[in-house]
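INFO worker-7 received task bundle
INFO bundle size: 2
INFO processing item 0
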Amino acid sequence: MISIDYQDLLNEMNYEFLMKEKDSILDQLAMTSTMDPEFYTLIKKLELIFMIKVSRKI
């Protein structure tokens, strides 16, 4: 589950910071097993970043 605070934080970020957050999540994913529950939370965060980009038409 992704917290509302995190969602609000992402919504306030500009493009550059969104991309840094995306890169950070990708780095974490590279070190996380698919059996780890955190893996799916990280995927949801990536989906949220993608949806923000799409809604802003970036």
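INFO item 0 finished
INFO processing item 1
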Amino acid sequence: MKNRLYILGIFCLLGIQYSCTDYPEYPDTPEVEFVQAYTSVTETDKTIQFNFLLKDGDGDMGLGVADTTSPYIDSLYYNFHASILATKDNNTQILPYGLLYRIPQIRSKDSKKFIKAEVTIDMYFARSLFPYDTIQLIYHVYDRALNKSNRDTSDVIVFIP
């Protein structure tokens, strides 16, 4: 009998400890932070596997397949926006075009739980059309409420053939 009470007491203490877990509080405006980038170069392509940390306090990050009407049109059809700072032969410039991607919906639209996730985006460039050997990405994201995150800059990304 004592053993049963002892085991029951341990489970009660574990339950109390679990229920008192503090969860982090993040703002409703998303935050991004560069993690790392991996590159590969083939005869025809240059590829980047771009990783960043995403935090969003209300969990409304990512776009669903049906999110194609207003307000998710034109440039807001995409929720990842990046400018490219490119270097070729020691000449650095911001390219006149950027990168746009759709991050898929992470939680259901009804969920109000925070999100902390590492996001990976695979980026492909035709080697013949992208002659740059070194770049940096200056990027931000939008959540479904169209809150714009902070702008972050990647480390230098080098394409090594």
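INFO item 1 finished
INFO post-check item 1: The domain at 24-158 is CATH 2.60.40 (Immunoglobulin-like).
INFO post-check item 1: Strands lie at 31-41, 45-56, 80-88, 91-101, 115-126, 134-141, 152-153, 157-158.
INFO worker-7 idle
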